[in-house]
Amino acid sequence: ALRLSYLRAGGHDPAILDQLLQLQLEATALEKGTPGLYRGRRMAPAVPAEPPGTQGLDVALLAVEMENWRLEEELLALKVRRERRANAGSWAAQQHSEELAQLQAEVGMLRCHTERTEPQLQPSILPPPVAAPLP
C-alpha cells in the first residue's frame, strides 16, 4: 500500500523504491513466520525457507513487478490525460460548430429581412438622369 501510494503520487526515486522493497520483503518474511528478523535488522535465517540462491531472484522479480506496476500506473495516467484532451477538443469543436450554425441562421434571417424591407424605389421618385456634359 505504501509503494502504491508513493508511485501514484509520482514518486520514482530508486532509493525509496528499494527501501519500500526491503520493507515489503520484511513484511512477507514476518507473514511467513520466517526467523531472522531482529529489531528491524535482517539476520541470516537459521533454516533457509527457500533453496540457496533463490532469494536474489525473488528480490529481482519483486523489483521487476514494482517497475511494471509503476509503468502501468504511468500508462493509465497518460491514457486519462489523452482522453481528457480529446474530450476537451471535441467539446470545443462542437461549441464552434453550434456557434457557426447559429451565425449562419442569423445571416439568413437578416438577408430575408433585408430583402423584404428594402424600399422599392418607384420610377417617379427617382431623380432625373444626369445628362452627359456638353462639349
UniProtKB/TrEMBL annotation:
Organism, as annotated: Furnarius figulus
The record's listing under InterPro entries reads: CCDC17
UniProt lists compositionally biased (Pro residues) regions at 125-135
Please give the residue ranges the record annotates as the region Disordered: 116-135
Q: Which domain of life is it from?
A: Eukaryota
> What's this protein's name?
CCD17 protein
